[in-house]
Design a protein that fits this description.
This protein has 14 helices and no strands. By secondary structure, the protein is mainly α.
Length: 290
């Protein structure tokens, strides 16, 4: 196989697993690492944490594409994934998945014994999510839990112990992720009905699903404020939470039950800004705001 072919397959894998969406969970891992260190963490620890996160997410996404092939092929929104799989080859995609799992476990081992001991549970959760839409309307929360492992893992990677702050940060990620995933799932309502898959939009209808999503995002903001009190954060962090709340309000204003045309803006653009912005304000607060 030529270098050109290998490059094309790797590019196709990154496209298939939406590598750029790592931006959703990575900033919260960085926030947790800096909070755990009380400032700048060790470069080696930080690099291992980020590498472990990228490996775990890549494994989860490639596994999801493999086990969801039978559903993706019938959904106009996801049919392109089948074309990419054929270009990559399912065997190659399985090899990539297994390699990412091996790298994740290795990076966890290099961090500390607790991170290593927790790595199988993390794999179980992130792989298990792919099957939840088959039997529960609450799959959005399992996805949130999968992403919420990143701040917990980052804290463990730095301190080697568990504490309250990373769990508060993780809870905010669960609420945030479940909220925006409910919004995203609204566009698959017809497909879910046809295939028997489950989601809150299917269970309650789009109007009530969007209301539930907005309540989850309200609770996310409250949890972030609770973290501010518990972790003794400064005014800049609180301002960051305020900006996050404003962006979430805008997200819910542009997505309406009868008009889902702005879903991509709400899902990709605004949530990317939220995660990066919250990380930025947290780090600034840690270094100069106290």
């Amino acid at each position: 196989m030529s270098i050109s072919n290998v490059t094309q397959k790797v590019a196709s894998i990154f496209d298939l697993i939406k590598f750029t969406h790592t931006i959703f969970s990575l900033p919260f891992a960085v926030m947790s690492a800096f909070l755990a260190a009380g400032g700048m963490p060790g470069i080696k620890q930080l690099m291992l944490i980020l590498a472990a996160l990228v490996a775990a997410r890549s494994a989860a996404m490639s596994f999801n594409r493999l086990v969801d092939t039978g559903y993706d092929i019938h959904n106009p929104r996801t049919a392109y994934r089948i074309t990419l799989q054929k270009k990559i080859g399912r065997v190659n995609l399985w090899i990539f998945t297994i390699l990412c799992v091996a790298l994740f476990v290795t990076f966890s081992w290099l961090l500390n014994w607790l991170a290593f001991a927790m790595s199988p549970l993390a794999i179980l959760i992130i792989f298990g999510y792919s099957f939840t839409k088959r039997f529960t309307h609450l799959s959005h929360f399992v996805l949130g839990l999968a992403l919420a492992l990143s701040p917990i893992g980052a804290w463990v990677g730095i301190q080697g112990t568990l504490a309250i702050p990373p769990f508060l940060l993780a809870l905010s990620v669960v609420l945030w992720t479940a909220g925006f995933d409910i919004i995203y799932a609204c566009q698959d309502l017809d497909h879910d009905k046809q295939t028997g898959l489950h989601s809150l939009p299917k269970r309650f209808g789009i109007k009530w699903a969007l209301i539930i999503s907005s309540l989850l995002h309200l609770f996310m903001v409250l949890v972030l404020l609770l973290l501010s009190w518990y972790a003794h954060m400064g005014i800049l962090y609180v301002i960051g939470v305020g900006i996050t709340a404003a962006l979430l309000c805008y997200e819910h204003l542009i997505v309406k039950p009868r008009d889902l045309s702005k879903i991509n803006t709400a899902f990709f653009t605004l949530n990317g800004i939220i995660s990066l912005g919250m990380m930025g304000m947290t780090l600034i607060d840690i270094f100069v705001g106290r």
